């Protein structure tokens, strides 16, 4: 049994009391345990503020970039161990493990390259001088500089490596120290990743700390110079938003929550675009066992193409091999925990009770090519069909966090956009079209409701990524139900950790302070 420790104030520490056990969702066997009882978590916050923050703030962007490059290298060297561990203990196939681990390595490397381009400065000068009086001597410069606190990152269970790295990359490059708290159920992979980072010796003291378990009431110790970034359920996000301390001290809060993402197939598509739609839909349903915040949940197709699309999707889903994650032929492993499995069944019932009909799969009977269905948290791919989405509610509000999607008809671009918008705000919407007029109307109609709109067509079918691929150069987040937050997006991802300030006064003195003369 592996004991997960927390890395706080420069050393690995174990908590006391009754530990929380982590289980392999493929076999049900315990694989690790952890506890944070008795650990000085508030002390870790103060250590980051007083030790880590000054060390990072005095460094240039280029110097911080070197740190990120070294961290990326450390994870790259530990890559095979992390992949093996993910497959053996987290229920992920090797392909899904690569999606997570390689995403972490690549994102850190991306931000290392960005930082190198920023050079020897340590703050941003945001635009030219603003003339504030008749004399040009009195002017204003807008700058962006790192906050003097600490970034507390609370991450989701589905991407223990990438989720941790993508938040940390932006904060560290901005000049702010990080405390990472992974979801406990999959914290083993994050723990091993953090071990590799610490062993590399790349980071100054206090720059990156790690909590392997519950954080208790740590949020109440944050102040106005701190940042809280959360990825997870909308229910937990609501609790964080309404925290007395977050409200009274105006603690910066970024939320990336669940999202009922949709894909729209246009009436006019070439075969290349149609095959792209089918391929992407099946991948988004089954990658990470459908446990992705960017997974496609609602499929809107022209009413006269409903039967064809249903038949083609069922044919492709029938080829998905379900089983033990380590088996070479397996494409779909178990859900992450027994609680996730129970919740998926509960949410599925809500959709079916409202009239969604099952057209592929059996939620009560999963056929495995390998593994133990009774011991594991297996949940096979399911395709539902709902013929009257306009008069339904749950399909636009309830997310089955597993390999499940619902097929629905629409008539006209306005109706398609309106139906997608009923999701209340999403991380990503997908459009597949080769009709310029339909594409223009749909893209502009979908944009206000999403952080990202993926546009698939014949011209990009052989080069495009998939809708669920979160790239560091594009923003990740979305309005409304999706949390209202924004991460990544190149240098935009640093803004969460920076204060925009206007310096007003003698132009010569201000420019000298900013290194402009």
List keywords for this structure.
23 strands; 517 residues; 2 domains; single chain; Aldehyde Dehydrogenase, Chain A, domain 1; seven-stranded mixed β-sheet
What does this entry look like structurally?
A 7-stranded mixed beta sheet has the order 16-17-18-15-14-19-20, with helices on both faces. Helix 2 runs antiparallel to helix 4 and helix 2 crosses helix 6. The protein is built from 15 helices and 23 strands. The radius of gyration is 24 Å and the shape is globular. With 517 residues, it is α/β, with parallel strands linked by helices. It is 36% helix and 21% strand.
Strand line-up across the major sheet: 16-17-18-15-14-19-20
CATH topology of the largest domain: Aldehyde Dehydrogenase, Chain A, domain 1
Please report the number of helical segments: 15
**Biggest pleated sheet:** 7 strands, mixed
Given this structure, which CATH class of the largest domain is correct?
Alpha Beta
What is the helical fraction, as a range of percent?
25-40%
Percent strand equals: 15-25%
Content-based structural category: alpha/beta
Low-confidence stretches: none
Q: How many beta-strand runs?
A: 23
How widely separated are the two ends?
60 Å
In total, the number of domains comes to 2
* Rg, nearest Å: 24 Å
Given the C-alpha coordinates, what overall shape results?
A: globular
The CATH fourth-level homologous superfamily of the largest domain? Aldehyde Dehydrogenase, Chain A, domain 1
CATH architecture of the largest domain: 3-Layer(aba) Sandwich
